[in-house]
């Protein structure tokens, strides 16, 4: 919604001076007052309310069913605009399905100017049936974790752990690193301290991402540009760092949504990273306390074999292969390869999976994905040493390490 409002603002000559600012409820109200005092019929049609109506029409033209995972309201500009936007969507026949840690009555609890948001709650209940779904099992926590030497969430954060994170980053970047990059979104620029030259991999410190006033759009923009994000020095968090906690929660939600691979160092494990006293748990209404369990479980899931396997399988072939130096493949590299191409987790690579591997290699080296039948047969015969029609991990390992393959494929 904010991205669309920003685009529409830029397209309106009457408000060009606001084109490079973030849409806020205060700006919208100020604009409406200015337009009313001017008495211009044309200007009135281009008021903030009309922009929201135009966004609603665009959204309905694309789809009438809206599904929200982890519905929450944390910002005054969202809170004020939501009743107008959702009112228009519901009137147009939209159907909304959402999950949330809180019932509608507790959304934006104790938020700034909450009275302006309150009319949204009965409207939500009028158009949606509310169900309390209480489960004692968090299935994200039941996934199989990565082996220790392949950790992506590294804790505690000491000197050796910091060196490990740097080794992982520079290995995946092939030692070729660009500094001082930028990601642009909605007219804003986000500084990227380090990024790989030949692959979409970025390095940030926790302070770069969570000490600055960044929001969901910024984190989604980062996840759209980089498939792998390194974050160094995530500290132990408390309610004293509430702003950082809130941004960290939003950041993890964005990375999880885009299936980004997060590699980080942290002071503590995911569950204990955010400390809240028993007294605060009983008395505080801070949204961050309610949201943290979801964040911790997502951090744990993002370390799982299942999550990382899906990450590798969803990447484009050139981006995946761009993370490796084929002339010096490590054991971890071979494991990553196997995880991508054994797509059904059968423990063997069949003909279709082998063809995908060869398509990726040919795309990187030749610029197309056409695998000639004779090339496929030659590779199959070279890899399938026991001639049983499929390729084991040992056979795959031996083939990728073989000098003839490296010389032929990557010369």
Q: What do these coordinates show?
A:
It is a single chain. This protein has 19 helices and eight strands. It is α/β, with parallel strands linked by helices and 411 residues long. It has three domains: 126 residues, no CATH class; 170 residues, no CATH class; 95 residues, EF-hand (Recoverin, domain 1), CATH 1.10.238. Strands 3-8-7-6-5-4 form a six-stranded mixed sheet, with helices on both faces. Strands 1-2 form a two-stranded parallel ribbon. Strand 1, helix 5 and strand 2 form a beta-alpha-beta unit. About 5% of the residues have low confidence.
Keywords:
two-stranded parallel ribbon, 411 residues, 11% strand, Recoverin, domain 1, 8 strands, 6-stranded mixed β-sheet
List the helices and strands and how they pair.
Layout: H1 2-11, H2 25-38, H3 41-45, H4 48-62, E1 65-68, H5 76-91, E2 95-98, H6 120-127, E3 153-154, H7 159-172, E4 177-185, E5 188-196, E6 201-205, H8 206-210, H9 216-225, E7 228-234, H10 242-257, E8 261-266, H11 278-283, H12 287-301, H13 305-314, H14 317-321, H15 331-341, H16 351-366, H17 373-383, H18 393-401, H19 403-410
Parallel strand pairs: 1-2, 3-8, 6-7, 7-8
Antiparallel strand pairs: 4-5, 5-6
Helix pairs in contact: 4-5, 5-6, 9-10, 10-12, 13-15
């Amino acid at each position: 919604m904010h991205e669309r409002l920003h685009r529409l603002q830029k397209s309106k000559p009457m408000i060009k001076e606001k084109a490079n600012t973030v849409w806020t409820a205060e700006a919208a109200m100020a604009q409406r007052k200015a337009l009313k005092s001017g008495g211009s019929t044309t200007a009135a049609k281009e008021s903030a309310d009309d922009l929201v109506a135009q966004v609603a029409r665009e959204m309905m033209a694309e789809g009438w069913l809206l599904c929200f995972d982890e519905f929450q309201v944390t910002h005054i500009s969202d809170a004020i605009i939501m009743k107008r936007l959702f009112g228009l969507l519901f009137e147009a026949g939209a159907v909304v399905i959402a999950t949330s840690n809180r019932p509608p009555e507790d959304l934006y609890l104790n938020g700034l100017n909450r009275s302006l948001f309150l009319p949204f709650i009965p409207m939500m209940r009028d158009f949606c049936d509310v169900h309390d779904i209480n489960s004692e099992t968090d299935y994200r926590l039941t996934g199989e974790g990565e082996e220790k030497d392949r950790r992506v969430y590294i804790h505690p954060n000491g000197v050796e752990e910091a060196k490990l994170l740097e080794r992982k980053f520079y290995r995946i970047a092939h030692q070729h690193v660009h500094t001082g990059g930028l990601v642009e979104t909605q007219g804003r620029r986000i500084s990227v301290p380090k990024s790989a030259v030949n692959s979409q991999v970025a390095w940030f410190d926790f302070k770069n991402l969570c000490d600055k006033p960044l929001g969901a759009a910024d984190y989604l923009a980062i996840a759209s540009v980089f498939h792998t994000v390194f974050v160094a020095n995530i500290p132990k968090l408390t309610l004293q760092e509430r702003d950082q906690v809130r941004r960290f929660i939003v950041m993890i939600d964005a990375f999880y949504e885009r299936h980004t691979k997060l590699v980080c160092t942290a002071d503590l494990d995911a569950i204990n990273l955010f400390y809240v006293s028993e007294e605060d748990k009983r008395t505080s209404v801070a949204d961050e306390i309610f949201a943290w369990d979801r964040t911790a479980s997502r951090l744990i899931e993002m370390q799982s074999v299942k999550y990382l396997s899906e990450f590798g399988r969803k990447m484009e072939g050139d981006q995946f292969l761009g993370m490796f130096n084929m002339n010096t493949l490590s054991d971890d590299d071979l494991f990553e390869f196997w995880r991508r191409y054994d797509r059904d987790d059968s423990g063997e690579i069949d003909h279709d999976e082998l063809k995908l591997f060869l398509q990726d290699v040919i795309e990187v080296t030749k610029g197309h994905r056409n695998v000639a039948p004779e090339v496929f047969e030659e590779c199959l015969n070279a890899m399938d040493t026991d001639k049983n029609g499929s390729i084991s991990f040992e056979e795959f390992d031996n083939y990728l390490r073989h000098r003839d393959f490296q010389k032929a494929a990557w010369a």
